[in-house]
Specification:
Layout (H helix, E strand, L loop, with lengths): L3 H29 L10 E4 L5 E4 L2 H7 L5 H16 L4 H20 L4 H22 L1 E2 L5 H12 L8 H15 L16 E7 L7 E4 L1 E3 L12 E10 L19 H24 L4 E5 L9 H9 L3 E6 L4 H8 L3 E2 L11 E11 L2 E9 L6 E7 L2 H23 L2 E4 L3 H14 L5 H13 L1 H9 L4 H13 L6 E3 L4 E3 L5 E3 H20 L8
Length: 525
């Protein structure tokens, strides 16, 4: 039987562990708190190699953060989960989780047991989700204006917000291009892997465009006058090298006279010519060559032979793009020359190299097969701007995908969070015991979103939140904050997918409860 002193010692140890975990997780939330909303501030991140990154995207900031504490890492993983599930709302998720942990610390200080907090938080989360579902408005996928409005809301808090009117329609058009209505009984979804984002430095963000079909940022090889346009294209993607084989690391080839050198060069030419003849014999007229690490993927001699055979060559295809290219073109990667067969080719009406402001790209038009694909060509004056435009476009695409999966929109501007907080407070009055106190604490935490929206916009958060709470007490569920006008509007023009909000509450609550349940940290060898 344990002594009372031992029990008190264990309880004190568990309390210390919880407080340490909560402090580590809250510190992560404080990092991104000022980046919330359309007037949120940016972070300048300096990577170990000296690269500079400027962004206010919560998922990107936390991904670059070198968190060492296990609970800080849990917050980073939570933002990744939100990014995968909804694509937007990563900053909101982390901020809400940090505020819930702050409330948990206060509840624990009042002597409330962690198990009671866990049960009440789960009830409060389920009730808040019901409230938000009741506020949701259905949207048809044919309603392009509504989809564009939702995408613009996602882009409004980014560095490229000034170009949101132009970028949002690109995201909607790209998703609509690849969307196929699902079979009966299956959940609709969109595979964003079929959308290729090509980054070009040159021009401005407003010069970006969406191209139906596949586009690659690599140029067509012009060695020895190679073709830059092919009609009725038969496309092969090869993963073997069109270059002379190298010796092992331990071996050397010693050439002592010109005759030996001539013979070596002649054999190299014959080896490469034999490879190129086999490629031409297979019927391939567009060749995509994957980038190689061990040796040159292709040599000038090979490019010369292929140009004479009127075969268009696109070199340095990234390994990460192989799967997308295969899906979009309906081809299969070929690992050796013996496997190069017409059955593994992709087919297109035309493959053409097109000049644009940022250089040249290769477009594949009229691709045969059932796979639909789209490409978004992003342009910008600097690499930093183009990289941020890519991250922003990913969020916009994910928002449109959310509406495909669950076609409901909710008014934004802090309206759903405030309405959920007001409803939870009223619901808590009917609860008995300590659960009523915990649910009220959960409701107060939801108000952090409108509070931070107002604070980051330079408004008085106390006045704004008080006015917004009064509007919702009067039954105006669509009232929200307009940060541009600096006031409360009866009907917020901001629209957010319901899936983003419900996923935010689910991930934030689950992570907080997971941290709360930890009462000791054990190290093993």
């Amino acid at each position: 039987m344990q002594r009372s002193g031992d029990i008190k010692k264990e309880q004190a140890q568990a309390k210390d562990v919880r407080m340490t975990n909560i402090e580590a997780a809250v510190a992560v939330a404080n990092v991104v708190k000022t980046s919330l909303g359309p007037r949120g501030l940016d972070k300048l991140i300096i990577r170990p190699r000296g690269d500079v990154l400027i962004t206010n995207d919560g998922a990107t900031i936390l991904k670059e953060l070198e968190a060492t504490h296990p609970c800080a890492k849990m917050m980073v993983e939570m933002s990744k989960a939100q990014d995968v599930e909804a694509g937007d709302g990563t900053t909101s998720t982390v901020v809400v989780a940090g505020t819930l942990l702050h409330a948990v610390r206060s509840l624990l200080a009042r002597g409330i047991h962690p198990s009671a907090i866990v049960s009440a938080f789960q009830l409060a989360q389920a009730r808040a989700v019901e409230v938000m579902q009741g506020m949701a408005e259905p949207v048809e996928l044919a309603d392009t204006d509504m989809l564009v409005e939702a995408a613009r809301t996602s882009l409004s808090s980014k560095v490229v917000s000034s170009s949101s009117k132009m970028l949002a329609p690109l995201a909607v058009d790209a998703v609509k291009t690849i969307y196929d209505p699902p079979e009966e009984g299956r959940t609709p979804n969109v595979d964003l892997n079929f959308i290729k984002i090509v980054k070009n430095v040159g021009g401005t963000i407003d010069d970006s465009e969406m191209v139906p079909g596949l586009a690659l940022g690599q140029k067509a090889s012009k060695m020895a006058g190679g073709p830059s346009r092919i009609n009725n294209a038969k496309i092969a993607l090869i993963q073997f090298q069109l270059s002379p084989p190298k010796t092992d690391m331990e071996n050397t080839v010693v050439i002592t006279d010109y005759a030996m050198m001539d013979r070596a060069l002649k054999e190299e030419r014959e080896y490469l010519l034999n490879l190129c003849k086999k490629i031409a014999k297979s019927g391939c007229n567009v060749l995509l060559i994957q980038k190689s690490i061990l040796r040159d993927a292709v040599t000038d001699t090979s490019l010369h032979f292929l140009a004479k055979m009127k075969i268009m060559v696109v070199r340095d295809v990234e390994r990460t793009d192989v799967e997308l290219i295969c899906k979009a073109l309906g081809c299969l990667p070929v690992a050796s020359i013996d496997g190069l067969q017409p059955a593994k080719f992709g087919h297109a009406d035309r493959v053409e190299e097109v000049a644009n402001l940022g250089g040249k790209i290769v477009k594949f038009m009229g691709v045969k097969g059932s796979n639909k694909s789209a490409s978004i060509i992003l342009r910008g004056s600097t690499k930093l701007m183009v990289d941020e435009a890519e991250r922003s476009m990913h969020d916009a695409l994910c928002v449109v995908r959310c509406l495909v999966k669950s076609n409901y929109l909710v008014r934004g501007g802090g309206a759903p969070e405030m309405e959920a907080a007001v409803q939870l407070r009223q619901w808590a009055l009917g609860l008995e015991g300590v659960a009523s106190v915990i649910v009220r604490a959960y409701a107060e935490c939801l108000e952090v979103i409108p509070e931070m929206l107002a604070m980051n916009a330079g408004l008085n958060p106390v006045d704004i939140c008080t006015q917004l709470r009064a509007q919702h007490h009067e039954g105006n569920v669509t009232a929200g904050i307009d940060v541009r006008k600096g006031c409360i509007v009866p009907e917020s023009s901001v629209r957010v997918p319901l899936l983003v909000l419900t996923s935010m509450l689910q991930h934030a609550t689950e992570t907080v409860l997971m941290i709360l349940r930890i009462d000791d940290i054990l190290q093993t060898r």
